[in-house]
Design goal:
- By secondary structure, the protein is of the alpha+beta class.
- The protein has a single domain, classed as Severin, CATH 3.40.20.
- 27% of the residues lie in helices and 24% in strands.
- The chain has four helices and five strands.
- It has a five-stranded mixed β-sheet, sandwiched between helices.
- The longest helix has 21 residues.
- The chain is elongated, with a radius of gyration of 25 Å.
- The N and C termini lie far apart (72 Å).
């Protein structure tokens, strides 16, 4: 086969007005959680759920039978400071989802993130991809946002020269 075809790197479906309103509410701190879905027949991004959400409730919000996009305001403390971090979560359960749905969600992910960050100026501190809600624990989110830095940095150790036995003297010493 001699021809090359360009593949589609990302899709950009329009947002339903209710989804845009939910993003506006999230930006104003009216809600801590928004869940988006793609309406495959209408090719539009809709809002599925919005409202207050704690870290403990987050795992129950992720459906186990379909893909979704989530924005979550993770309220936590780190090194004595109280922080509110905006986290984007792309949830895709195993292979129980149709191939079309898997392709649509993975292709639209970047354009959804662009709308959130560029249009609404919501700076996402972390973008995660999970298979199920059970992964989304407080410890997991803390480790993703604030990875432990090793203070004992391993320096490169130069390997020893290979030994070939005793040194041979080819010239007589003077």
């Amino acid at each position: 086969m001699d021809t090359k075809h360009n593949t589609l790197s990302s899709l950009a479906f329009p947002f339903h007005q209710s989804a845009l309103d939910a993003l506006e509410d999230y930006k104003r701190n009216s809600v801590d959680y928004v869940q988006f879905a793609i309406d495959l027949s209408g090719e539009i991004i809709t809002v599925m759920e919005t409202g207050p959400c704690t870290t403990e409730q987050l795992s129950t919000k992720v459906p186990s039978d379909c893909a979704r996009y989530h924005i979550f305001r993770f309220k936590h403390t780190h090194e004595g400071d109280f922080l509110e971090s905006d986290v984007f979560i792309y949830s895709m359960p195993g292979y129980s989802v149709s191939i079309k749905e898997r392709m649509m969600y993975s292709s639209c992910k970047n354009s959804v993130v662009d709308v959130i960050e560029k249009t609404y100026q919501i700076m996402l501190e972390k973008k995660l991809e999970v298979e199920g809600g059970s992964e989304l624990t407080e410890k997991f989110l803390q480790e993703e946002l604030h990875p432990v830095k090793s203070l004992n940095k391993q320096l490169f150790a130069k390997p020893k020269m290979p030994s070939r036995g005793n040194r041979r003297i080819t010239k007589a010493p003077v």
